[in-house]
Amino acid sequence: MVYGETLDDVFAKSNEVFIPVFLPEEVITYCNDLIEAALKENNLPVETPLTIATKPDSRENADIPGEYVYWNVSTVIMWQQIDRRIDEYVDIEGFARRMF
């Protein structure tokens, strides 16, 4: 829950939600590219929603391939029906979050 005295306070970048998820590297690249393209085509600010949270090479010899990432549920991506690709992305990330 986010509180603020004004709508600008509520929708400030500092109040965006970051959720940890574990994803294969191919999915991270695909989702970031997909969201960036969808936002650009809808004349919205382009952002990268998935940021790798682990140090480079820290999972190099891991048994399960993938990376821990921060999923940024921004004030743009959280709204439904901007673009169907974004809605489907949110569904996939929600599933990944429940697996985490």
Can you characterise this structure?
This protein is α+β, with helices and mostly antiparallel strands and 100 residues long. It has one domain (16-99). It is 37% helix and 17% strand. The chain has three helices and three strands, in the order H-E-H-E-E-H. It has helices at 7-10, 25-41, 84-99; strands at 17-23, 50-52, 67-73.
Q: How is the topology of this model organized?
A:
Elements: H1 7-10, E1 17-23, H2 25-41, E2 50-52, E3 67-73, H3 84-99
Antiparallel strand pairs: 1-3, 2-3
Quickly list its features.
100 residues; alpha+beta
Write a brief structural summary.
The protein has three helices and three strands; from the N terminus they run αβαββα.
* Inertia-based shape: globular
Instruction: Quote the beta fraction.
Output: 15-25%
Write down the domain tally.
1
**Helix percentage:** 25-40%
Round the mean pLDDT to the nearest integer and report it: 82
> What is the string of helix and strand elements?
HEHEEH
Unreliably modeled segments: none
By DSSP, the count of extended strands is 3
Nearest-angstrom radius of gyration? 15 Å
Strand arrangement, largest sheet?
1-3-2
Amino- and carboxy-terminal Cα gap: 21 Å
Q: Structural class given helices, strands, pairing?
A: alpha+beta
Number of helices: 3
> Can you summarize the main beta sheet?
3 strands, antiparallel
